[in-house]
Automatic annotation (TrEMBL):
Gene3D superfamilies: Tetratricopeptide repeat domain. GO terms for molecular function: RNA binding. InterPro entries: PPR_At4g14850-like_plant, TPR-like_helical_dom_sf. It comes from the Eukaryota. This is Pentatricopeptide repeat-containing protein.
Amino acid sequence: MVIVQSSDRSRYDYMEHNECMIILEAIIVFKKMNSVRDTPNTITMVNLLKACSSSSELDISNWAHAIAIRRGLALDVVVGTTILDMYAKCGVIDTSRKVFNQISQKNIVSVVIRIS
């Protein structure tokens, strides 16, 4: 049996709240960039997708994936692998398998994520 003291629980809640705020901030910054027509590059897209995978919110993840497709970045091996990881973390294994199959040049990271 694990006993969590209230001070430990408060610290955990605080850390969890901060992580949620960082994820939300990343999404807001991306939306602002997108609204001024600043085209995202691979690095920007990967960071957005990682924020979405940390949130485990499927709707937000689908939104980010759609942006990657529209911007022509979804077929990039780094972006594709991040999309694969995002869907796996959201628990949508069938979709992650489909994304894996669409990655034209798979690397060791994409294969390991698919296996795990």
